[in-house]
Structures are given as C-alpha cells and as structure tokens.
Amino acid sequence: MSKKILLINPWIHDFAAYDFWLKPLGLLYLGGLLRQNNYQVYFIDCLDPYHPAMLQGNRKQPKRHSYGDGKFFRQIITTPGPLKMFDRRSYCRYGITPEIFREELKNYPDTDIVLITSMMTYWYPGVFEAIKIIKEVLPSVPIVLGGKYATLCYDHAIKFSGVDFVIAGAGEKPVLQLLKDLFREEPSFVPDSENLDSLPCPAFDLIRKIDQLPITTSRGCPYHCSYCASHIFNDEFRRRDPVKIVDEIECWQIKSGVINFSFYDDALLVKPQEMIIPMLKELKRRNLSCQFHCPNGLHLREIDKELSELLYGSGFKTIRFGFETADFQRQKQTGGKVINEELLNGVRHLKNAGYKTEEIGIYLLCGMPGQSAAEVSSSIDFVRESGAKPVLAEYSPIPGTKMWEEAIASSSFDIQSEPLYHNNTLLPCRSNVFSYADYTELKKKLKNN
Length: 449
Description:
Elements: E1 4-9, E2 12-14, H1 25-36, E3 40-45, E4 74-77, E5 91-94, H2 98-105, E6 113-116, H3 124-137, E7 143-145, H4 148-152, H5 154-160, E8 165-166, H6 172-183, E9 213-214, E10 218-219, H7 230-233, E11 238-239, H8 242-256, E12 260-262, H9 276-285, E13 291-298, H10 305-313, E14 316-324, H11 328-334, H12 340-353, E15 360-366, H13 373-386, E16 389-394, H14 404-410, H15 436-448
Parallel strand pairs: 1-3, 1-6, 6-7, 7-8, 9-12, 12-13, 13-14, 14-15, 15-16
Antiparallel strand pairs: 2-5, 4-5, 10-11
C-alpha cells in the first residue's frame, strides 16, 4: 500500500490580502511528482475561496472576478505583539475558519506525512497556526515545512515552527530523499534538476474550483537586483520548452475549461525569441483562446513593436512591469534592469499596440533604505508622463538579498530576529526623508490624478 501524503496550503495572517492569482504552485508541483512516484496525495487549501462549509449560515462568498482574481474569506484576529503599533488596522486571518480546517484534517486519519508550504516571511503566523492544529488532530504524523519563509528564514523556522523537518529551496529532490529515509522506499522517478520539463505537471486537479491556473516558464532570473531573492531560490536561470508550455495550457483548458492563466516569472520577456515569441505563436497556431495575467514586475527592456502586438493579440490582459525608480543612480545600484529611455520606448510600443494607460502598470518601489519621498514623487511623475500607470510597491526587506545589510542598518525595527517586521505595511526602512506621512501623501497623489 503506497504512503498517504497530505499537502497543506496555510492561511495568510496580515492587515490586507488579495488573491492576485495566488496558487501554491511549488506545493502542487510536489503533488504531481509524488503521484508519479505512486504516493497517494491529498490537499487542504486554507485559502480556498470556494469552500462549501464557509457558505453555511449568513456568510457570503467573497467577491471574485471574471479574470480569476478576487477576495478571500477573512476573520479579524488579535494583532501580534510586534505589530501592535498598527492596531488601528484590522489584522486578519484570510481563508477558511480553524474549525473547518480541523474537520478537514479529520478526513485523513491515516496520513503518513504532511507537507506544508509558506509564502511571505511575515505571513509565518498563519503557517504556525496551521501547524499547531495539525499536531493536535494528527499528533503522530511527521510535518515537513518548505516554501519561501522556510527558505529565507530557515533558522527562525527550525527554532519556532514546531515541525519535524524544514526544507530550504526547491523541494523536489530533498522531499524524495526524505521520504526514502523515512519509509525506506526508493523513488521510482527522480526529475532532472537541469530540465524543468522533466517535472510532471502540477496536481492542479486537487484544487476545488479552478478559476485560473499559474504556469511556470522558468526558474531563476538572469538579473541579480539588490532587493530581489530570486537567486536564493534558484542558483541559475533555467527555462522550459515553449511548445511544452503550450501543451500544458492546452491540456488544462481541455480538462477544466479554464481560460485564465497567470505567469509569475519575472523573466518571461527576457530574450523573447527564445521563449515568449515562440510560445505566443504556438498558441495562435493552435487557435487557443486564453487570457493571461502577469502580476509580477516583468522586464521592460525587451518590449518592441513585434512583442507588444503579440502580447496584445494573444490576450495578455494584466501586465505589470518592474521599473522601481526613475533615479539613474539608484537604477545602477539596484541592478540596472531597466533605464528611463527603455521605459519610454516600451510604453510607446505597448500603446501603439492597443494598450490603454491604465492597463500598463509600472511598479515603483518606495521605502527602500536611503530613498527619499522626493525620488518616489519624481518617479511617479516620470511614469505618468510616459503614458503608463504608476503603481506603488512598498519595499519589504528580504534576508539574503544584496540590500539586506543596508536594510538592517537603516531600519528602526529588529528585522534580523523578527520576520513580522518585514511586513511592507510598516515601511520597515522609513526614515526622516521618507516618513509614513510622506507615504500617505504619495498615495493621495496617485489617487488624485
């Protein structure tokens, strides 16, 4: 009898959370791999916006949108001690109730091992709450924690999470090795870590209701921006075969009828002749009708007439680009991913292809160490003058990045020992040249124009 493995996508605990096409993609990739190795795989999604038990009584379905994004269920909870200075804002548990989670766990009494993922470092309280309940309901079952928080705050997770095993980085090979050690079973299939297409498809069928699906085209990034952790999760930049990506899109469209797909790959547009252009041409050749969403900051440098027209004609509805700042010196310091002239050229091509100003979102980082409010304000003006829509992205310090030491030195919070202080709501690196009042004024500026 094959072992039974339970996958858990935990709650988000935060002041605000919105489902911008979130799915636990790494966890579901593990689900596909474990099935390939003849394990029985089950899944509980604490963020499930369609859980039927949540709709009993007077509770309403969270508002969802036709693109597959929308709100989560939420319950107001006690604000953790380190964040009490923000107690004027409601701190919430996003997702199903703990009672429903307990009942779900009782459906799997003969589970052999639990794998739980994690996302933002400062969302760890939701992970810890789920772990505590798992240990109450399934006390003898080993628990393995992986994901972003587990990777970036490994020592914190080892010390405080209460799990049996913590895995940092890509989980496929470590999980197979751990299962081999625990259960004395040799894996029948081990993927080639150099070939992303050797991984089985994610176990998307475990999702209760598929309103959109995330698609991976690559891992890693050719850039090493000082504020980004991509190189920590992946030691090199690897890409999939664009035809196999289209195979996956077509497969899930046939299986589930889904038309909305999301890409979280920052480097989707890098070297477009290698990936995005052949992928889009193959989609067109097969006459697949899709809507695509890119909530992460794509690279603008490669945008030209051909690519803009392909993106527009292929149904790329949500496009966001990482620009970060119009300040030339800071562009160089943070990685030189894009310069002002490239933004102007890219926006011009996108608008000529048919995109409207409000559809071209340009992320501007605010609250970076040493950054002034004046710099952010002038960056907003520059993006507006280019014909695009500026979108403020509050800086969150990330352990292991090039900017981390600078963030430690500039933050008034103990960001080294308490990941809650990474929460971008706090503006952890605010200063006398970028105060919370400055931030409030910048938000007003965005609304008023």
